[in-house]
Amino acid sequence: MAIKLTKILKDGNTGGRVAARIKDYERRFGGEARGGLDERKTGYRDFENTYYDLVTDFFEYGWGQSFHFAPRAKGESFAASLARHEHYIAHRLRLGPGMTAVDLGCGVGGPLIEIARFSGARIVGVNNNALQLERAARRSEEGRLSHLTDWLKCDFMHVDAPDASFDAAYSIEATCCAPDKVGVYGEAFRLLKPGGCFAAYEYCLTRRFDDANPEHRRLRADIEHGGGLPEIARPQEVAAALREAGFELIEARDLAAEAMPGIPWYQPLVGSGLSVASFRSSVAGRRVTNGSLWLLERLGIVPRGTTQVSSLLELAAVALAEAGRLGIFTPMYFVFARKPE
Which pLDDT tens digit goes with each residue over 259-303? Predict the structure, then answer.
């Protein structure tokens, strides 16, 4: 673990900025009040950039280049389950050669590159984080897919592209970072050609979530803080926002609740291993992970602040796994909507 993680952190762009950035993140958004909802929304650009500057190296180390969840069938590999989840979006949008789609919140480009390779469509990735976008473009070039991929560094609430530029639009667990659902869906609507479709996997609280339950509220707060989220929506809020943005909502359902018997989406967070993203569920496992990073930090092998970032991600991982087990949260509320002709 030490050798691989050390190389990633030293090769990445986080470097000596880790300690200062995590201190600023916790100062502004941490504590008992979790930073306050208003500031997470009004300052969302800085909020999200600060978060992803901190965690991108850790996500890639522990999860790979596709920063999302997927249920797994028995006998299916982790990587195959992620690819299948991505292919489903491409399939529903009927992406193919000659089409151009936009990926709103493309991360480091893992899903976008997979969808471009799978479908043959040209995909434009939108991301406001320079670190992630640089890695996405490099990997696309290394994979010889530059002819099918393009990248826009801009806020997905205000995309630097003309109206009706795209045949299709999608987002994979990214619009949860938007400060305003109507705003981000409205931007997708603007970018689509008449008759074009939008598909997304959205973070949502489920009907089992109980506002009167303090444990449910704590888990939601931990997911939001540890996951860099302004606010987790409810299904009815997502549906209402899509309609208000102008879409015809064709389909909305929780794919986690409908998954075939197998390995649930949250299982990698509680499975074995010492990666920063795939935490052990036991207290002993988490202590080993943080203890290893603490020692590496003291030895000067990883940047100062690394242990704090690990703790932030552990907070999210533990809360996500427990919320998934309780069935009060889903990362794959699937929506499929159409812009009228």
Answer: 988 999 998 887 644 434 444 433 345 556 666 666 767 776 566
Contacts of 27 (CB under 8 A, 6+ apart): none
**Which residue has 């089409």 as its token pair?**
99
| Helix runs in 75-207, H state only | 78-92, 110-119, 130-142, 181-191
Q: What is the DSSP string of 67-99?
A: -----EETT--HHHHHHHHHHHHHHHTT--TT-
The CA distance from 27 to 34, in Å, is 9
Each residue of 214-258: pLDDT tens digit? 999 999 999 998 888 888 999 999 999 999 999 999 999 999 999
8 Å CB contact between 199 and 89: yes
Specify the residue for token string 């000659």: 98
**102 phi/psi in degrees, rounded to 5:** -115, 135
Give every CB contact of residue 156 below 8 A, 6+ residues apart in sequence: 104, 105, 126, 127, 128, 171, 174, 175, 178, 184, 187
**Cβ–Cβ < 8 Å for 149, 205:** no
Whether 69 and 265 have beta carbons less than 8 Å apart is answered as yes
The answer for residues whose C-beta is within 8 angstroms of residue 91's C-beta and 6 or more apart is none
Q: What gap in Å lies between CA 180 and CA 20, rounded to an integer? A: 28
For 193, counting Cβ atoms within 10 Å of its Cβ (0-12 exposed, 13-18 middle, 19+ buried), the class is middle
Spatial CB neighbours of 139, under 8 Å, sequence gap ≥ 6: 65, 108, 109, 110, 113
> What pTM does this model have?
0.87
